[in-house]
Amino acid sequence: MNFLKRFSDQLYSLLRLVAGFLFACHGAQKLFGVLGSPQLVRVPLMLAAGIIEFFGGLLIALGAFTAIAALIASGEMATAYFLQHAPHGLWPIKNHGELAVLFCFVFLYIASRGDGAWSIRTFWKGKTF
Questions:
Q1: Does residue 1 belong to any structural domain of this protein?
Q2: Per the CB 3.0–4.6 Å rule, which of 19, 26, 71, 117 could disulfide with 9?
Q3: What domain count does the chain have?
Q4: Predicted confidence (pLDDT) at residue 126 exceeds the cutoff of 80
Q5: φ and ψ of 92, to 5 deg
Q6: What is the pLDDT, as a whole number, of residue 6?
């Protein structure tokens, strides 16, 4: 699969965009009660999670302050796993925590890579897509 190496920057940006968008959707569920979920702003922990997920997801998807937003999002997902999922069993597939684990590590990777080729910050700096 060496031929994909030449597209690694674009594929990374696509990963960042999709993961950030999906994360923002989870936040929208909690904050606004959309996409098939009730609004959860009356529960302080869910309000905090919704804010991190919605706004952090948007920043990650757009590629603005990506490293900081992704690091915070990664920590939130680790916290969510240990508070909500781990008490129900050891294995993520059994305790339904696999999405939290996956988001945690994807965002940790994104935090290490930063904005990427297709990002708002790249656009602001005058570089073309």
A1: no
A2: 117
A3: 1
A4: no
A5: -55, -35
A6: 92
Q: Is the pTM of this model over 0.85?
A: yes
Q: Rounded to an integer, what distance in angstroms lies between the CA atom of residue 126 and that of residue 129? A: 9
Is residue 94 a part of any domain in this protein?
Answer: yes
User: Tokens in use for 126?
Assistant: 């005058």
Distance CA 27, CA 6 (A): 34
The structure tokens listed for 47 are 């309000």
Q: pLDDT (tens digit, 9 = 90+) per residue, 50-103?
A: 999 999 999 999 999 999 999 999 999 999 999 999 999 999 999 999 999 999
The answer to the question of residue 129 being in a domain is no
* Residue whose tokens read 């302080």: 44
Structure tokens at 42: 């009356």
Instruction: Count Cβ atoms below 10 Å from residue 15 Cβ, excluding itself.
Output: 15
Nearest to 116 by CA among 19, 23, 2, 22: 19
Note whether residue 98 is domain-resident. Answer: yes
